[in-house]
Amino acid sequence: MRRVIEEIIEKGLIKEGDRVVAGVSGGADSMALACLLKDLQNLLSYDLLIAHVHHGLRGTEADRDLNFVKTWAQGQGLPFFARYVDMQAYAREKKLSLEEAGRFLRHQALKDLAGEKGLVALAHSMDDQAETVLHRILRGTGPDGLQAMREKSDGILRPLLTVSRRDLVDFLRDRGQTYCVDSTNLEDDYTRNYIRHQVFPILKVINPQVKGALVRLASLSSIDQDYLEKEVERIYKQVVKEKQDYSLVDLADLDLFHQAIRFRLYRKICSKYGDKGLKDLTYDHLQKIDEVRSFGSGKGLDIKGLRVEKTYHQLGFFSIKKPKKIKLHLGEQETDFGSYFLSLTEEEGLEGLALEEGEDLYFRTWEPGDTILVQGKSIKLKDLFQDKKLPRPLRNQERVLVGKEIYAVGDQISDHWLKQGKRITIRKGKG
After folding, report:
1. For the chain, which residues score pLDDT lower than 50?
2. Both 312 and 347 in a single domain?
């Protein structure tokens, strides 16, 4: 454990003045983490908080664990925080397994305590890492998933990933520190427990060092992933044209790269738009996106709130959303098209719109058959969009200003706009 402390300091995993919230269940792994982080305070000045999440399960046994951790923290002079969550209710509401619900609620509670700049320390050991890698392999993970848990990422610190569970128990025994035993860890109801108790004993017959082999696989995958992420980030900045609700990539640029790079570019672009699930695109999703390159212009597919479409010489990724029709009024107003300020004016030099008495104004999206009067000629909005080579998904987000006539489409105004007399002016943004 001395080696772990040295690595924390050498790698700067925890720095002077940091706020660290340790998630402590009371089990052997988490108590070893708590003891280690307390010892680290003798060498490094930082704030250490002990937190326990009560899941609303296991009855008196769970209450025992909470009180055990609370007593230990108070004895060490460390701040203690308890958080209560309803794991079963959340699992039902979100249609998750109890394992998934518990993991999410724990992380969320600990992150809330840590704050935006704080760290959450978790007690995942080498055994946990091996179990995670094997579990992901069995579920069909791709290369990125093999890296499993990282030592430090997204505000979460896992300093014990290279330490076996047996070594952690020995560490506690040598210093006379007791710990709690969660009876559910002895059961095979959860997938992870089944892997631990049933699968690994069989695998050890083939390779007694199977856990170490899986951990090395995770480490090597992490190294490869770090390189690929930097390379994709560099390429992304060169070839991806980012807008507020969409991105475009020239097909000629995509053709320069290997499929491995293209897939990672797709994943990075998709993570910015659409549903949160786009961060977990499957190989099938990525393959289908790649095939859109060979489609005709205007053809594409929808994936989890995102439209991927070939548009002329580019591949476009569009957030699927259709702004709502809204009636406009004088003053400041928030719309799905942005913030606007409407006022009456006779000021010279400002373009405005003369309305008939009682005429209402609206923002909406275009509809088939819509026309606008430009230089005395009635032009179909469809033709206007085609002339501008506006991708189809963006046409459904273009702002149309309409009253008794269509007065504007995006930045294109109609002949109905005037520059003299009393009129309404519309400005983008706050007044």
Report:
1. 276-277
2. no
